[in-house]
Amino acid sequence: MKIYFNHPCSVLRFAMVTLLLFLSLAIFPADVLAHGVTEGDKGFIQESSGIMILPFIYLGAKHMVTGYDHLLFLVGVIFFLYRFKDVGIYVSLFALGHTLTLMSGTLMQISVNAYLIDAIIGFSIVYKALDNLGAFQQWFGFQPDTRIATMIFGLFHGFGLATKILDYQVSADGLVTNLIAFNVGVELGQLLALGVILIAMGFWRRSERFSRQAYTAQVLLMTAGFLLTGYQLTGYFIA
User: Fold this and answer.
1) In angstroms, rounded to a whole number, what is the distance separating the alpha carbons of residues 184 and 236?
2) Cα dihedral angle (135, 136, 141, 143), rounded to 10 degrees?
C-alpha cells in the first residue's frame, strides 16, 4: 500500500516548515545535540574487563529500546506491512545489515564520525517516509527496491552502534564474546520494541480513521527524520 502527496503545495508547505525548523537548530548548544550516552553505562563499559555476557545483553537491549532513531525507522518499515512473513523478511534484512557492520566495524576498529553516521540514520527515516508516501514513483517514475534499501540502511545503523561502542573504549579482554552478547541484546530489544509497535499498529489499523491518518503519520515521521538529521549535522559543524 502506498499513499501519495495529493497536491504539489503540500510538499512546498512541508519544505518551508522543515526549513524553519532547521534554522531554529542554531540556538541549541552542541552538547545538547550530541547522541545521548548515559554516564553510568559509559563508565561501566570503560571500567569493565573480561567476559560479561548478561550485562552486555542488557546494554544492547537497552540501547535498542531507547534508540528512538532506530525505532522510528522500524515504524516506517513495517507501517504498511500486514503479513508477519513480510515483517519477518524486512526486519531480518535490517538485523542482518546492522549485525554485519556492528561486528566488523568494532572488531576492525572502523570509526565513523558519530554525528555524520547519526545524520545518515536520521535520513533513513526520511527516506522510508517518502517511500511510504509513494514519492519516488511520483517524482522519478520508479520504485527503489525496498528490501535492498532496508538492508543498506541497516548497515549504516550498525555502523552507528559500532561507533558508539568504539567511543566507549571497550576492553579487548573478552571483546568478541561481549560484542556478541551486546548484539544479542540489540536483537532482543528490537523484538521487544517490534512486538509493542505491532500490537499498537494492529489496533490502529482496525480503526476507520487509519486510512485518513496514514498520510499525516508519514509526514510526521519524515519531519522527525529531518529534525534528527539536522540535529546531528548542526552538532557536527559546531561541536
Assistant:
1) 30
2) -130
Strand residues in 158-205 grouped as ranges (E) = none
Q: How is residue 165 written as a grid cell? A: 561502542
Reported as a single tens digit per residue, the pLDDT across 185-209 is: 989 999 999 999 999 999 999 988 8
What predicted TM-score, i.e. pTM, was given to this entire model?
Answer: 0.81
Question: Around Cβ 73, how many Cβ atoms within 10 Å?
Answer: 27
CA–CA distance, 163 with 203 (Å, rounded to integer)? 37
Whether the CA torsion 166, 43, 186, 237 is positive or negative: it is negative
Neighbours of 37 (CB within 10 A): 14
Amino acid letter, residue 204: W
20-72: pLDDT as tens digits? 455 444 444 444 444 445 656 666 776 777 888 898 899 888 888 888 888 89
Q: Which grid coordinates belong to 40?
A: 553510568
